[in-house]
Amino acid sequence: MLQKKSLLGLLFVLLVTAVACQPQTVEVEVTRVVTETEQVEVTRVVTETIEVEGEMVEVTRVVEVPVEVPAEAEMEPVTLKIMNWSQEQADFYDQVAVEFQKEYPNITIEWDTLEQGQYRETLPLMFQSGDSPDIFFWLGADRVLTMAELLDQNWIAPMDTNVLPDDFYDRWPDGSFLEGINVVNSLPYSFPFNDNVVWGPGYMYTNKDVFRAAGLDPDTPPATWSELRTVCETIVANTDAYCLSVPLGNDLQRTWYPLAGMNFTDSFFDYQQGRFDIDDERQMETFSYLQGFFNDELVVPGNNDKNFARQAMANGQAAIYFGGAWMPGVFAGYEVPDLDLGVFAPPVPDDGRSGSLRQSFSENKYYISAQSDHRTEATQFLEWMTRPDGFFATEYLAQGFGTLPFSDMEKYVADEGMLQVIDVAKTNGLRVAYPEPVVACPDAASSSAMKNANNLTKNWEFVAMSEALLNGEDFSGTAAEIAAAKNEEFLNTLTEEAAAGLNIGVECFAFPEWEDITQPYDSALYDTHQMPAADGEG
After folding, report:
1. DSSP code of residue 130
2. pLDDT value at residue 95
3. CATH value at residue 265
4. Segment 276-333, tens digit of pLDDT
5. Which residue of 85, 214, 278, 469 could cross-link 119, Cys pair, CB 3.0 to 4.6 Å?
6. 111: part of which helix (H) or strand (E)?
7. In the predicted model, what is the mean pLDDT of residues 74-99?
8. Do 286 and 432 lie in a common domain?
């Protein structure tokens, strides 16, 4: 990293009263940017007292003294390859590459943005062939433990702290960097990219024109499950549109999370009891409620993905789409300039809200590849990218792509839809802090129990629920089968890991004292769960 030698730039003469024949010197110093070594002339002003014909006389003169100092070195050109998904942001990433190179002219950014499914298939193959990008975007099976998953696969390297400014960590709220989540041995491997209060699933987006066509007030959304059902019946009876646009397969999560989160939890794991919970009666209640919309033809028909479902709502084929905080930017990219978009909180069960969406340390998404030869330059880009008032942050917010914890959202967000998202999240408290097992038990970061259970069948709950929704089948038996298999694998793995030396157990994942899921977990209660790491650290 270039270092500056700060020297005085003002030349002056220091007059000294003669007390002895000893020279007094002052260096005239210059400011340079240096990296290697070269010889330069440094100007010195020398005042001496000498004897001339028996008298002491002051003499001042200027001399040039050769001194070895570091010198500028030519910077090698570097190309950084960066990969992620979110194709709707591709033009923005091209702008980012141009702006970054203005400050770092020797670094060229090649940004490759793929469709998410293609991305998840392509990136592992690139690592296998040794041709991975320098920086990549990833979310693990357990999003909180993405770093641990990637370390286990030998995919990632830490950021180069030698090029990070002293105030780097101050860009985020306190507690954003935690050992085992985005830090290992005090070295940062990632950082929270999106905030965990606003960012995430859980919003109800509406096409207000469809509401008007049905004779409904577009600014008075359904607030309860019964009201949503009534609204949907009214829309289908009085317009040519369907009510809900619901993507299936793994994309079913867009609709599932807000409905299940208001009733119990948006997780398929119960952090009160420490078990996989798709068979819980509250989860089954949510499924039955959603299935009623399919059975009564209130949903856009077909086995649709998220892209089709989103556009169906934007084009007026449906009135409601449940999606994440990023959707205002997605809708803005569609060729529907007259879309009158509504953004609201999801409806709650008729007897009141009894759950919350999970606010967790799940937004650590950008990583440096362990295969990269340019870790320093990659770190320089990530530092540049996360400057609170820099180009990336201000334009990312201004263009409505999402929310950032390292910048002022209210200051830079310009999109009305995104401002509504921020307001809905903060006003309704959709997300609350769930307990984090890795904080209670450091060895949870090394545990494969959650991962092994979730890997039994990819996206098992969402795929099985989608089939039942399409076919009008009872889901209770399948739910019981999934929960039993996952819990068996989970407990067996914990037992094996404990026998192998990990300080781990189901008590690291069960927090029965967290009685009200609508309220955040009190961090003071972690003391009842603390278990030191197996090596005695933590």
Report:
1. T
2. 96
3. 3.40.190.10
4. 999 999 999 999 999 999 999 999 999 999 999 999 999 999 999 999 998 988 898 8
5. 85
6. strand 107-114
7. 91
8. yes
Nearest CA to 96 out of 393, 326, 401 is that of: 393
- Please state the rounded mean pLDDT for residues 408-421: 90
Residues 354, 428, single domain; the answer is yes
Query: In degrees rounded to 5, what are phi and psi of residue 531?
Result: -135, 125
Q: Which residue has the tokens 């009842």?
A: 528
Which residues are CB-neighbours of 188 under 8 A, at least 6 positions away?
Answer: 158, 159, 161, 164, 177, 182
Distance CA 216, CA 87 (A): 35
* 92 Cβ contact list (under 8 Å, min separation 6): 395, 396, 399, 401
Q: What is the largest CA-CA distance in the chain?
A: 118
When pLDDT is averaged across residues 427-445 and rounded to a whole number, the result is 89
User: What is the pLDDT at residue 531?
Assistant: 63
Mean pLDDT (the chain, rounded): 86
Q: What does the alpha-carbon distance between residue 321 and residue 309 come to, in Å, rounded to a whole number?
A: 7
DSSP-derived 3-state class of residue 463: helix
| Same-domain pairing of 270 and 325 | yes
DSSP 347: P
Token readout for 362 is 């799940």
Range among 67-71, 265-269, 334-338, 532-536 with highest mean pLDDT value: 265-269
Q: What share of the chain is helix, strand, coil (3-state, %, to 5)?
A: 40, 20, 40
Cα–Cα distance for residue pair 368/347, rounded to 1 Å: 40
484, 441: one domain: yes
Mean pLDDT within 248-261: 97
- Mean pLDDT calculated for residue range 471-487: 98
Model pLDDT, residue 335: 77
CA distance 443 to 235: 52
Is the pLDDT confidence value at 150 over 70? Answer: yes
Tell me: do 366 and 298 sit in the same domain. no
Indicate whether 214 and 286 sit together in one domain.
yes
What's the CA gap between 508 and 295, in Å, rounded?
A: 41
Alpha helices by DSSP H, listed for 48-89, are none
* Interstrand relation of 275-276 and 357-359 (parallel, antiparallel or unpaired): unpaired
Domain interval for residue 374: 69-193+361-414
440 and 459, same domain (yes or no):
yes
